[in-house]
Amino acid sequence: MVFGVVSRSPSDSTVQIPEEIKGRVISAWQISHSTAATADFGIEATNTWDLLDDGGYRWPFALQPIRAWSIGNAPEFKYLAGYTSKTHTQQAITTLQEVGGDLSQTLRQLLQESGTELEVMTPLYQSLASRVQALRQKHPFALNGYAVEPNADAINSIYIATLGKAGRVLKIGHAQNAKQRVDDLNKYRLSSEPQWTLHTDQPIGSVLDAIEAEKYLGQEFAKHRSEPNNNEVFHDLDPFLVLTKLATFRQ
């Protein structure tokens, strides 16, 4: 996640910034790990400070956003919990600073409470637009996480959900209420995005039994994982093949 903080006193004196947003956290982006040419989005210089001394555009490349938010009632960055005098200079026109600890948690809470998701800019070329859409599908984002209320007496199931009907991107997990679990996953996806569809809800037994079954399936299909921080998502995998393996699972 990248949060946008408006400079209070940029080094270029020609840059004009409205007083009401100086030094404030006004936006956030979920970004990919690659850059994009701003020309591919039809972005051109609109102010004199957008140009370098040689007449070239100051920002020919930018981080590729796949989601974007505006921050309502934007607070001043320096007043956020966890901010110190060493956090950021707020002087350069564009700088990128990694933060952690209390400040990181404060920014995430700010996004949860005051963020409004916006439509990201669409590239001019269809191939690039498709790439942005694919990244949105590959990296779902939930501000408040996913949760299903536990019930100690309930039978636990292994569920298989496909991203879109007949999709080959799968989410394999365990839950006491598989339908509610999948519904919760879709709460944080835009209506324009493919939705998670419950494919299989297979009762297993206790929560420990379900955990072992999920672990077994994860080991069997480890090569289909492409997200190191999300062990439940599998790519290019037939759900019926997963069912076949699940049928052979033994404690």
Question: How would you portray this structure in words?
Answer:
By secondary structure, the protein is an alpha+beta fold. The chain folds into two domains: 137 residues, no CATH class; 94 residues. Helix content is 24%, strand content 23%. It contains five helices and eight strands, in the order βββαβαββαβαβα. The protein has a four-stranded antiparallel sheet with strand order 1-2-3-4. Strand 5 and strand 6 form a beta hairpin. The longest helix is centred in the middle third of the chain and has 14 residues. The two termini are 40 Å apart.
Quick description:
The chain has 251 residues and is of the alpha+beta class. The chain contains five helices and eight strands. InterPro entries: Phage_T5_Orf172_DNA-bd.
